[in-house]
Design a protein that fits this description.
It comes from Arthrobotrys conoides. The chain has 448 residues and is of the alpha/beta class. The protein contains 17 helices and 20 strands. The protein has 3 domains: 4-91, 3-Layer(aba) Sandwich (Rossmann fold), CATH 3.40.50.720; 95-304, UDP-N-acetylmuramoyl-L-alanine:D-glutamate ligase, CATH 3.40.1190.10; 313-447, Alpha-Beta Complex (Protein-Tyrosine Phosphatase, Chain A).
């Protein structure tokens, strides 16, 4: 008799899991409290997978043997509470898929840099000849790829929400890029709970696995004071020398020492510039070295890599003003990296849905780098109160076109307009991608 798999959420991870579940012989039912997008509905219909949207039919859900919950659904949702009361396992796509795949995985998490590190790692490994897929929080779902493809390895970008739902999943190589307060609204506003969620990535690793981490990161260092992992530790740092791992020397060279083999890479030859990107590059190169990629291939791949869309993405230079789209910066720590990499006076477009931001860590940077602030959100009070005595020019707008026009009014030749919101996008936009694309469209409109 086949087991009942209920999938909650009809997005990329949900639909992929439903297809994989059906292929593995489960009786599948998919339910979404919101409206499922038409392409996903068509895919489900094509595979004859029953589904519903706009609400949950409890009688069809509570008979599940196992439930896959999409990462966007919080544990506090009533349907999840009812499932837990009945002791029905609720897991993530990552957990479900890994139990039906023999491929090795590289799991990458962190508050910032995980998308860039995931993409760069995939670029290095694919160019090095590995049969490797990319998934998790990026591109096609991991589940769909396991159902339809035959990659020997996967590079997975993993959010804390996805890691909350793992039980036995263990990546062969895990990366924690860094940890800073983010999504605290999902963790009862307790930073330590969010940190614990990130470290779930290593909880099932063995002595044959690796954990790559930022040795400069305070939250990571604090976790290691009272916790351990069985994985082999490989640190990277831009502040100090490390014996085994990677570090920055004199600001000009990255030194990577893996298994007593040293690789030296001049930072000039890395396509992604900025200290945070040196860290992302270190993590990716360590992975490539652990998986025995050719050094020449690693060097050429670092040169040719194009960064992630919406992450410090250069849009246009108009009348000497550089416009940069950093819409993916949905927390304060991301903005810190963005502002830190600015070398000219900056007009900063900021705002959205505040997730419990503490702006203290960027106050001095804002004072040093920012000449004007354009607030783009439905509630800008906190930003105005915090930076009102630091930045002389602050204005509020209600849409992206007005934001870009206001920024253009403040910026002079030789300066930069930076969209780096520090907030979620759901007050005025569908997603951070929608926000970034609207910014790029508005900037292009200036040049027409």
């Amino acid at each position: 008799m086949s087991r009942n798999l209920v999938v909650l959420g009809g997005g990329e991870s949900g639909v992929g899991t439903a297809i994989l579940g059906q292929k593995q012989g489960y009786t599948v039912f998919l339910s979404d409290a919101s409206k499922i997008k038409d392409p996903y509905k068509q895919t489900l219909s094509l595979h004859n997978i029953p589904f519903e949207d706009g609400g949950h039919t409890e009688s069809k859900i509570l008979i599940a043997d196992i439930v896959m919950k999409s990462p966007g659904i919080p544990d506090t949702a009533p349907i999840i509470q009812k499932l837990r009361q009945r002791k029905i396992p609720v897991i993530s796509e990552i957990e479900f898929t890994s139990t039906h795949s023999v491929s090795q995985t590289i799991g990458i998490t962190g508050s910032n840099g995980k998308t860039t590190t995931t993409m760069l790692t995939h670029h290095l490994l694919a160019n090095g000849g590995l049969n490797v897929g990319i998934g998790g929080n990026i591109g096609k779902s991991y589940a769909l790829q396991v159902a339809e493809s035959s990659y020997s390895s996967y590079v997975l970008e993993l959010s804390s929400f996805q890691l909350d739902g793992i039980v036995n999943y263990a990546p062969h190589i895990a990366v924690i890029t860094n940890i800073s307060p983010d999504h605290l609204d999902r963790y009862e506003y307790k930073y330590e709970k969010y940190i614990e969620a990130k470290f779930r990535i290593t909880m099932n690793q063995t002595e044959d696995d690796y954990l790559i981490y930022d040795a400069d990161d305070e939250a990571t260092a604090n976790w290691f004071k009272s916790n351990t992992t069985r994985a082999r530790l490989v640190p990277f740092s831009i502040k100090r020398t490390v014996e085994k791992g990677a570090y920055l020397k004199d600001g000009k060279s990255i030194i990577i020492n893996i298994d007593d083999q040293v690789l030296i890479i001049n930072t000039e030859y890395i396509s992604l510039q900025g200290k945070h990107n040196y860290k992302n590059s270190m993590a990716a190169v360590i992975i490539a070295k652990l998986l025995k990629m050719d050094e020449l291939s690693i060097r050429s791949s670092l040169k040719t890599f194009q960064g992630a869309e919406h992450r410090l993405e250069r849009v246009l230079n108009i009348k000497g003003v550089e416009y940069i789209n950093d819409s993916k910066a949905t927390n304060v720590n991301s903005v810190f990296y963005a502002l830190d990499s600015m070398n000219t006076p900056t007009v900063w477009i900021v705002g959205g849905v505040d997730k419990g931001n503490d702006y203290n860590e960027i106050r001095e940077l804002v004072k040093e780098k920012v000449k004007a602030i354009v607030c783009l959100g439905t509630d800008n009070k906190k930003i105005i109160e915090f930076f009102g005595d630091v930045v002389e020019k602050i204005t509020e707008v209600g849409n992206m076109v007005d934001a870009v026009n206001a920024a253009q009014g403040f910026a002079e030749a030789g300066e930069t307009v930076l969209l780096s919101p520090a907030c979620a996008s759901f007050d005025l936009f569908k997603s951070y991608e929608d926000r970034g694309r609207q910014f790029k469209d508005a900037v292009r409109g200036l040049s027409e």
